[in-house]
Hints:
Layout: E1 5-6, H1 11-32, H2 47-56, H3 64-82, H4 92-104, H5 107-113, H6 119-134, H7 160-188, E2 191-192, H8 202-229, E3 236-243, H9 248-253, H10 257-276, E4 281-283, H11 301-308, E5 311-320, E6 323-331, E7 337-342, E8 352-353, E9 363-365, E10 368-372, H12 382-389, E11 394-399, H13 409-420, E12 423-428, E13 432-436, E14 442-447, E15 454-461, H14 469-473, H15 476-503
Helix pairs in contact: 1-2, 1-3, 2-3, 2-7, 3-4, 6-7, 6-15, 7-8, 7-13
Amino acid sequence: MQTPSPVSLSFALRVVIGLLLSALSGLAFMLAFPPYEIWPLVFFGWVPMLFAQYRLIPPKLSGLAPALAIGVWLQGYLGPVFKPVGTFMVWLPLIVSGITFLTDGGLRSFHQKTSYRYFLLAGLASWAGGEMIRLFIPIAGTWAFIAYPLFRQTWMLAPVSIFGIIGLGVLILWVNNALALGLLRWADRRWQFDAEGVSVPARPARTALISAGAVCALWLVLSAVLGAARPTATARVTAAAIQPEISPVMTANVDQTEQLKALHESMIAQTRQAAAQGAQFIVWPEGSFLWDPQVEDRLNLRALAAETDAHLATGYLVIEEQGFRNEATVINPQGEFLGVFGKDHPVVFGGETSLTRGTYPVYDTPLGKLGTIICYDADYTDTTRKLVRQGAQLIAVPSNDWSTIAATHYAHVVFRAVENNVAMVKADGGYDSAIIAPNGEILALAVKPQGGGATLVAEVPLGDGRGTLTTLLGDWVGWLGLAGMIFFTFFSGWLEKRHAAAQA
């Protein structure tokens, strides 16, 4: 057996090299996300950081490795996305990095004392639990969930209907952690990094690599089986998303009355154009106008729905003393308002409210069962799920994005569709509209970071209205991860003692 050669690196050099590798991991994860979309990087991008954390950076400072990697990743991705609106999301990377440094410092010692037996399980629990926690934070939601770079890879998305977006994230981290453990084992057989360090035994490394390969294979087989089992004779609806040249909300905010009038006339013309192409369900953006259409039908939307013989879904705002109502409604071809949906996840600092918030109406129509959510609701997993539990087959997503969010926001809608086997139509106020099938296939897309109009029309298969296991159980993988995170947090000492006793 080869005797490992001692690694003679100064304290400073260890830290510098370790931090460079950690920054490389953060950069790899950043490049996996839109607008770069080098998605394979998510499957191994975390490996350099893990090597730095467990072999290069001195134990007392090892928490610097994940802290820096997360900071580079989130700042590089979320910083540019949210900078124009000045939200706390710009500062979130720093907050998360600080928490990571304070909580991850003891991980190296724990895994050394337990001979890396729990390296894989603890890592997956921590990641899944961390994503679950973010679902409880206003604004944060699913932003930067590690599975999002795969939104175009329809061939591997079907199991999300069972395991949810967090489940796919667990698969990704499984591969990363297994590769890292294998790398640590390989390095330990050649070099001795610390005189008192504990090498990775063969068994946990081998188990991690074999299990990662097996889980990936099973995931892909399951994806193929679920895809093949999907019924091909489902009902179809020709849907349309109306994307104006610029946001009606922003136009109204600067009191450009004539410009707003022209914009509405253009949206009406786009609606007629979509109907001429056969559109039966037409969606307007969030905040298309600043009044309640059931009280004041200033744009004659009832008549427009009757003229086009289409169901028209639209978002609107109503300014009030204590903020504004952000709502959406659907008008049928008979000119009837079917109901009102109030934004379920309002932007907390924006004053958004609605009397109907917390209700999830689904409308039974000749087209199928229709529902609506609004913009940021698609960044959380629960709102779409609640509609599908009531039978929704096709959901409108009026939104009002901004330039730097355009490259990524529609990706979230892809996962909401797959999670619940429901068709979705995102109509945006100038940047990123999309029509998405229940399997996550993007049937029509208009991404215009500089803004611009578009009329999207596509025939979309409806969901079956029954939903999926994810619809029924929710974020169950996330809850398991959170339970595991709590267990390892409070019982790590007991595990260390138990392992020591078994080794004695």
